[in-house]
Amino acid sequence: MLRALQRRWESYKYRFVPWIAFNLRHKRRTLRFVPEESKDKTISDEDVLQTLLRMFKALFVNDLTRQMPLLSFLPEIQSKYLDVQIAQPETSEAIGGNQQSQMSFHAEDVLFNTLGFSITRRHSSLVSAGTGVFVTRGCVPKRTVVAMYPGTVYENYEPIFFQSLGNPFIFRCIDGVLIDGNDKGISKAVYRSCSKRDQLGPLKMNDVSWLGDAVWNPLAVGQYVNNCSAGD
């Protein structure tokens, strides 16, 4: 029982304000001083934006059949995909007319064809290593966007106590904003609730597929990437 409590404490103490205040001067490795915002960027905002736009456009085109009802309400955008619409029936025949699979390719295949590599979330073969993110195909060039951190965004003044209990997926940005990337428990319920709240008719404002196994956006696995270790 004591070991279980110890594990809980080790997971939660970084969000316990008195502990943080007491250890602020002694735990410098978890803090970063950034004199200017631009000096903290490994990849420029423009490169990140262009990479995401390429990826999202490829996913959209790959799922164009299911997106047609939405495009009918957006004629200006629909006109940009006329050539793709004409070729779409040929693609449907090529995959054998499978009505259950709306996508021509799996999301991981789209990622590989667009960015030259494919990643997936799975259990590590190492003992007690848990779940991680692995490159399954291709090669990832240096300074490349490889993942996104999905989750519910909390401003530093918003309550997150109950969601944070035993939750190792809360990412604290350098400006104090918190991102809860947990895909289970109360965190999952909160994200789904926010998604339904923000939905405009048939138009979904965010992706909920990362909460399950059938992920539409293969980059939405960043919460399973270990981004800090004792040696850093």
Which shape, going by the Cα principal axes?
A: globular
Task: State mean pLDDT (0 to 100 scale).
Answer: 79
Widest beta sheet: strand line-up: 3-5-4
Approximately how much helix is present in the residues?
25-40%
Helix/strand order? HHHHHHHEEEHEEH
Nearest-angstrom radius of gyration?
A: 21 Å
Range of strand content: 5-15%
Low-confidence stretches: 90-103, 228-232
Largest sheet, strands/sense/barrel: 3 strands, antiparallel
In total, the number of strands is 5
Structure commentary:
- The protein has 232 residues and is an alpha+beta fold.
- It has a domain at 1-31.
- The protein has nine helices and five strands, in the order αααααααβββαββα.
- The chain has helices at residues 2-12, 17-23, 45-62, 64-71, 75-78, 82-94, 107-115, 161-164, 185-198; strands at 117-123, 131-138, 152-154, 170-172, 178-180.
- The strands form two sheets. Strands 3-5-4 form a three-stranded antiparallel beta sheet. It has a two-stranded antiparallel ribbon with strand order 1-2.
- α3 crosses α7.
- The longest helix is centred in the first third of the chain and has 18 residues, at 45-62.
- It is globular and about 60 Å long.
- The relative contact order is 0.12.
- Mean pLDDT is 79; it is low at 90-103 and 228-232.
- This is SET domain-containing protein 9 isoform X3.
- It comes from Eublepharis macularius.
